Predict the 3D structure of the following.
Amino acid sequence: MKLTAKTDLEVPAAAVFAVLTDHASWEREAIRNGVEIERPPGSPLTGVGAEWRVRGHYRGKARKVQVRITEMTPGQRLMLGIESPSIEGTSRVEVMVLSPRRSRIRVDLEIKPKTLAARLFINTLRLAKGRVTARFEGRLGQLGSRIKDRYDRSLASA
């Protein structure tokens, strides 16, 4: 199943990419939301090969996911590989320059089932693709708002 969303921001592209690649901030936020994050030994802190093992609850069940940066073009693109016992997938995050002070984030997510239960779940998502896409776009909009707020705070403190 593929999902795509985009949002425009009144933030320079370099600042957007810096926030997206601030891994320590994302790890702290995940921990605040009750998710366990583990970095495998030998994994680089940033860049291609950086990896996280994530454990948390989703829909009442404990889930484990491994996320790895598979490709990175500084200032432009970030490719993530996603692996769990029941699904695998990729996510591509692109930051495009619209003007010196405007940028666009585009996120493509593709997931594939590895088990029968995951296949049933993904088929259920396909049936409600309109609502799933709307929620995905809404979450990206929320992310865009948080990036803008963070950028505005950095300007105010400078």
Q: What stands out?
A: The chain has four helices and seven strands. The mean pLDDT is 93. The longest helix spans residues 129-157. The chain has one domain: 2-157.
